[in-house]
Amino acid sequence: MSPTTALSTSSSLTTLFPFSSSTTKSKPTNFTQFPFRFSPKNPTLNLTSSTARSAVSIEKEVLETERPDTFLRESDDDDKEPSSTSSVRARFEKMIRDAQDSVCQAIEAVDGGGKFKEDVWSRPGGGGGISRVLQDGAVWEKAGVNVSVVYGVMPPEAYRAAKAAATDQKPGPIPFFAAGISSVLHPKNPFAPTLHFNYRYFETDAPKDIPGAPRQWWFGGGTDFTPAYIFEEDVKHFHSTQKKACDKFDPTFYPRFKKWCDDYFYIKHRNERRGLGGIFFDDLNDYDQEMLLSFASECANSVVPAYIPIIEKRKDTPFTEQNKAWQQLRRGRYVEFNLVYDRGTTFGLKTGGRIESILVSLPLSARWEYDHKPEEGSEEWKLLDACINPKEWI
Amino acid sequence: MSPTTALSTSSSLTTLFPFSSSTTKSKPTNFTQFPFRFSPKNPTLNLTSSTARSAVSIEKEVLETERPDTFLRESDDDDKEPSSTSSVRARFEKMIRDAQDSVCQAIEAVDGGGKFKEDVWSRPGGGGGISRVLQDGAVWEKAGVNVSVVYGVMPPEAYRAAKAAATDQKPGPIPFFAAGISSVLHPKNPFAPTLHFNYRYFETDAPKDIPGAPRQWWFGGGTDFTPAYIFEEDVKHFHSTQKKACDKFDPTFYPRFKKWCDDYFYIKHRNERRGLGGIFFDDLNDYDQEMLLSFASECANSVVPAYIPIIEKRKDTPFTEQNKAWQQLRRGRYVEFNLVYDRGTTFGLKTGGRIESILVSLPLSARWEYDHKPEEGSEEWKLLDACINPKEWI
């Protein structure tokens, strides 16, 4: 796993920050921390460094009864109706909220039984989020789709890591904005894969105390899937849909982000990936900003066509107890990845984020058998082999 | 949670060190690390400090077909038959191996169906272990009882933290010896509690490069239990047995070690303990060494009388699906504690210990429901309340 990916990304439902999905139901979180991006330019900057432990204050969240039109501060919301001339912040927020709606609609339509339960929350000074969870549906065991907008303050080290400042002068803490969508979908049928996706956008203010130092921005995210059994046509369809989204923007994106995904979702102590990958990227700022906004939108909009046809094909496949036990063992791996490695989850647990939002990414149930080894050549063995030795699927 | 307990102890089956239960089945582990004891005398010494990351080499383990009489080096084994005049090392090893036998015999006798599977391993230069796992028995879902003996080298900081050296001169790396027993027992019936116990003994050599600096030693361990439902008579019986063992040695032991246990098995992100506690201690060296050896033996010998009568009473209690689901949710908490907080587990996963030995402490299955809240006043609520607000049971 490259240190870049290990320290800068999250597959938890809290999207951006562990603290982004809190509600008034949880205990007050008066102080929290910024999970720094790790940059090769500043390899000493990581979550365990002493700088990373310096807390920044964040307002307590308020539970809302209605969804507001926007979670942006008024000063940011340059148009009441986001248009092509609106700020990137406003258009990104609109994009993730539309994506949340369309994914949830598609899930409910296929599920036929389950309905999403929604929690809306905001912070007095701006920012907030919408958490939606469907549990014990007909098709999905547990499905969470969250969006959030956060205004916070990050230590100067994070700013400097993001882009080498034009000066050696050290700025003070930098206000930042972040917005994102994050989702984990665990179906019941062991032949139907789990899906995770997460797209996020960051902006910092320009440091006031360093004349000429720029505002910074970057995009991150990805979509990956985790079947318990390989249907080659499903894997090809999933990866092809990701590649198609990437290829519209840059032919290098898919191969780069496919590898990045394999590297990030690596369970080091098992020497296995948690699943069959997809795409993953972070810290993207060395392309045109409008192009990357369109790319992130394209990726988010590719979730339904990449995933739903596979679910429709597999949701009613007959299965044995053995198939279910294997799915449960693989879900044990999912739990291991999320609790041990995922930066958003581990950071969230340590810094007092809303636990139920953070851990909604965990499956409804999981299993650990001592020294379980699938029989060589079996379908279970084939899946494990593909998790140990990532393949090129298309 | 006090930092002392957080950083110095382990509830994983690897007892002492993450690397203590490896076998040749696993990948070679040529380098590993010493999970330092944390001492208030040296609060900067912890697992994430840069000193703690310095690797020390350890030999690869060899799978054995038979149990040797001892895992001690010949030079340590001052008597072929350990007696009251043998070294503490030899007597501690004998004690934990006897305890392993008697606990496994008691488990098999009550289970009636399941049998322990045994793995024996050693290291050419001395040390080794015996891992025993019973899976899918009639009464226990998963039961692991491991003993191990380790010879290693620890950085000087760990020695100095153990007892302030009489000199400011910094010694080189210090050879150490450690032996321990560790066990987690997960029954099937939701009214039958999970048990964990772990007793360990450490010795360092005297630093050769500092004339007069002493050899050091200390004891650690504990026994705690984790029911899904409270039967007050069971909790009282369990704690009384612990208190009785403690009171034979020092009337301050039970209250001190009961609190230490509540502090250690704390799931910070939930503000809950994982269960109803028991006793826990570490770094004990400020009593007579013979007395502490007897105390550790007494504690290990109290496991069967503390636990088995409760299992016999509860193993066949009729239960509903709802009871089972609640047990599974509590097992989810067990997984969270072990993967997120337990020092032995988290350290083992990061440093290449034998994964199957480390993770045999995880339950066969576990469950996570979004925002599950037991109804106030229900039996489930009472258990949760006792995990949030530790009680004095006797």
TrEMBL record, chains A, B:
Its EC number is 1.3.3.3. It is an enzyme of class 1 (oxidoreductase). The keyword Kinase does not apply. Residues 58-74 have a biased composition (Basic and acidic residues). One of its GO terms (molecular function) is coproporphyrinogen oxidase activity. The keyword Oxidoreductase applies. It comes from the Eukaryota. Pathway: Porphyrin-containing compound metabolism; protoporphyrin-IX biosynthesis; protoporphyrinogen-IX from coproporphyrinogen-III (O2 route): step 1/1. GO terms for biological process: chlorophyll biosynthetic process; protoporphyrinogen IX biosynthetic process. Its main location: plastid. PANTHER family: COPROPORPHYRINOGEN III OXIDASE, MITOCHONDRIAL, OXYGEN-DEPENDENT COPROPORPHYRINOGEN-III OXIDASE, MITOCHONDRIAL. Belongs to the aerobic coproporphyrinogen-III oxidase family. This is coproporphyrinogen oxidase.
